[in-house]
């Protein structure tokens, strides 16, 4: 019987220590065996290479062999088919995304560390599978040996965030929809698509930003049934991750916070947006976002600029001209970065210098300097928002001061602001100006939305300035002050307001005739559509317009504004604005705003509002709201017998009021006198006037937004 081929193979007399430890056949080649040479291991036959021998408890000598691959991938990396570092107790990918890392035992795997040892070493790196107690110190300021913030992208996940990672297919669909339909909105344009996708596929994108992008995309676009509710859950988890890591701010978490603020505003959760915006501004200050950093690459610098200007635009919309509410009231002196570059340079990493916030002055004998090619509509949008903020500050001061000096300088101040607006339009290159041809060329472009909104905002700036002279509006000057101004100035301002409102309605009509759908916008377009409707009905009902407005024509133009608002923005806040436009179309504009309805007026018939009835109500117009230049129009109705607990000072007081008697203390049922913990029981009222909204009549019963500190 012949011997088998296996027994006939030549055996070597010697085996190197490495092959012996690996339990593989060694060819015994002198110098370095074939196996060690192929794998790059240290061979005991090599006289110039040392081999580390480890003495175990069983007194058995073992060699520490470098691993070429991990023993196995964790469950999360295995499901996503992503590269796993194999580190314990949590791999690098799960640590970066705040996931609970789980290693399933394998048949041939070496035993893992004991649960007691793993839990002791992972107290600050990964949450357990079950929720830990509320008083767990896992997220303290990095006093443990290992910090999840060392990489600058990881966020510790609270107990509520210990859920499964979103499916990769869903994440990619959300990213694609975001960059197709949402990214063009100026407040979201700080993300660079190529950089974001590269970081996501590498498994190092912060989980909070992923969840925030899913949430805002699900709110503004259609990702499928049930995605709106799922998006809200994602946003709550993203905010929790940002709050857990607020002592270690990062750019990525600040980006998630900015998206969260806008999500709160879209969802009509104004108190949460108000507080989160303050936290985001602190993040920006800590990260020095309002200063240039020349040490960074161009893409990083440009992304930081856009993020800073997004914060500024949110702040200007929240403050609505009230400097004591604004966090960035003086952008020229607080924000020391240039305007964003155009989209092509940002997308393809083409460095090019831009301008500062204030445009350069005209050169002597040369006229207005042409706009450089490096500036795009993102820079123009930031600049027009800055102009509008200064207009609102001017009108707010004029309506609240009531001093003779301010009234005297008002015409000159208005002329300066109008000259800046005209200079803004004059510098636009021909391809940037508003025309039917330029509009149609952008029909299927993702930049259609910002092109439309930049020109709409230019019209809205004129409305904001001219509304100061529309007697009867809440933000207008009272009749005694208007009578002290030049009648020609008042008449020209009113006519200019009606002309720009008519032009804005025509812009909406041209937008609706395009072959594509109306681009997704934030609340800017519905808010401007409301103010346009308001101005049109004011000209109709007061009879002060030279445009020969008829009821049918005004209703037709207002219906166009309503359609544009309905097709551009979704969400509870947008629905409220649309409902208010419908109310004006149905019942007309109540003048003076804020006054009770006249018993002789038929509120269902706009034509029944006669000029004599308006004059009668104007005579009693004596109180203004603290937001005279508000953009939107949602302010909850307050009964005459009650008042907000904390309000801005009334602007209608012309003489020192008589001190009211001290009310009894509500702080305690034990004491009856003064108490250091006394407060108004209803909490701090976050009305929409802090967001440029002045809803006087709200048909859907929206209550006052009360801040109780329980939910952001």
UniProtKB/TrEMBL annotation:
Biased composition (Low complexity): 114-129, 147-162
Ranges for region Disordered: 114-162, 590-610
Top-level lineage group: Eukaryota
Biased composition (Polar residues): 599-610
Pfam families (UniProt xref): Fungal_trans, Zn_clus
Keywords for the protein's UniProt record, in alphabetical order: Metal-binding, Nucleus, Transcription, Transcription regulation
CDD domains reported in the protein's UniProt record: fungal_TF_MHR, GAL4
Annotated localization: Nucleus
Chief place of localization: nucleus
Record-annotated Zn(2)-C6 fungal-type domain positions: 15-45, 73-103
PANTHER family: ZN(II)2CYS6 TRANSCRIPTION FACTOR (EUROFUNG), ZN(II)2CYS6 TRANSCRIPTION FACTOR (EUROFUNG)-RELATED
Protein name (database record): Zn(2)-C6 fungal-type domain-containing protein
Protein species of origin: Podospora bellae-mahoneyi
